[in-house]
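INFO batch 0412 | record 1 of 1 | parsing
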Amino acid sequence: MADLLSDTEIDAALTGLPGWSREGNSLVRTIESATFPDAIALVSRVAEAAEEANHHPDIDIRWRKVTYRLSTHSAGGITAADPALARRIDSLAGE
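INFO prediction complete | emitting tokens
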């Protein structure tokens, strides 16, 4: 099982993740796309990246706004896999 990050490690990771915040045991970001199809296309790219990493976010779709919530459920909180996937989501959102 993956090790949980300390509060200090989480805060440090968040400094490199603009737009992301901590909500309890999760990293959270809402991304607004220009159109609904654009939002769904990003969700699809994130799904592929998550499958490759075997680390799957909770995704909430509200028209053009999509909220990504990252937590390592098996560990009960935030592990190194979460900021890593956050960085990948940011990269995909910038494409």
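INFO post-check: The two ends are 32 Å apart (CA to CA).
INFO record closed
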